[in-house]
Amino acid sequence: MAWFKRTEKGIQTATEDKKDVPKGLWYKSPTGKIVDADELARNLYVSPEDGFHVRIGSKEYFEILFDNNEYTELDKNMTSKDTLHFVDTKKYSDRLKDAQEKTKLKDAVRTGVGKSKGKDIVVCCMDFAFIGGSMGAVVGEKIARGIDYSIKNKIPFVMISKSGGARMMEAAYSLMQLAKTSAKLAQLADAKIPYISLCTDPTTGGTTASYAMLGDINISEPGALIGFAGPRVVKDTTGKDLPEGFQTAEFVLEHGFLDFIAARKELKNKINLYLDLILDQPIR
């Protein structure tokens, strides 16, 4: 039987016979470049034609930084609680449950311990997919415990930020994490253990106002949005037009808030080069 039939209104295809192209086979970058999804994955989720860095999560960053993707995850089952019984358009407890089911994550940060180019390293990495990478009590606690692990074992600490800022559903509990993580980083500095902060797209709000800008070196991926308040808020507050490229990694680097920008393919080598230099080890 024919897969289509002609009617007075034209050709119609029965629903069960439609041959939809599976989703996710192609990716279109903001500049309009089209890339095969498999090729994009092989290229570490960087568009090969225009160099656009697609947002990725902790899973992908761990694959990039840890040798053979081998690491031990710390505090992997720690989850947030709805202490304030917060409700906006829905209950915070329901938001947490939905986010956990959708992302298969427990919260917006994961901590891995493993080797990178043969050196022991602790990596805390945020996941924007989990409620916008918002910083709640669990995020602050896991970062603090990751720093404690670095201090106890005398190994470098890497923080990968990707966040919209404080988690409003936890109110003051969220804001306390700025001071908590900053105090822990002061202890890390006192122990003379290296801290590398990697800002990815986006790094904003309370994250920028605390641990994201406190690294011994602060680095970023190309084109990442880095700032405190969003561009619209800044423009409305100042009443002035913003400079071209405002709050991009390149703009922030030019104004002295970053040490350098590294493409994703260079991250592992660049981080380890810095560690080799500061720890007075042979450069690999």
Description:
By secondary structure, the chain is of the alpha/beta class. It folds into two domains: about 15-55, no CATH class; about 55-280, Alpha-Beta Complex (2-enoyl-CoA Hydratase, Chain A, domain 1), CATH 3.90.226.10. Helices cover about 30% and strands about 20% of the residues. The protein contains eight helices and eleven strands. The termini are far apart. It catalyses: N(6)-carboxybiotinyl-L-lysyl-[protein] + acetyl-CoA = N(6)-biotinyl-L-lysyl-[protein] + malonyl-CoA. One of its GO terms (biological process) is fatty acid biosynthetic process. One of its GO terms (molecular function) is carboxyl- or carbamoyltransferase activity.
Distance between the termini: 66 Å
Poorly predicted parts:
1-6, 15-21
The count of DSSP E runs of length 2 or more, i.e. the number of strands, is: 11
Name the CATH superfamily assignment of the largest domain: 2-enoyl-CoA Hydratase, Chain A, domain 1
Major sheet size, sense and barrel closure: 7 strands, mixed
Catalytic activity: N(6)-carboxybiotinyl-L-lysyl-[protein] + acetyl-CoA = N(6)-biotinyl-L-lysyl-[protein] + malonyl-CoA
EC number: 2.1.3.15
Organism: Flavobacterium agri
GO biological process, one term: malonyl-CoA biosynthetic process
Topology:
Elements: E1 5-7, E2 10-12, E3 26-28, E4 34-36, H1 37-42, H2 58-65, E5 71-74, H3 92-103, E6 109-116, E7 119-126, H4 137-153, E8 157-163, H5 171-190, E9 195-203, E10 217-220, H6 231-238, H7 249-254, E11 260-261, H8 267-278
Parallel strand pairs: 7-8, 8-9, 9-10, 10-11
Antiparallel strand pairs: 1-2, 3-4, 5-6, 6-7
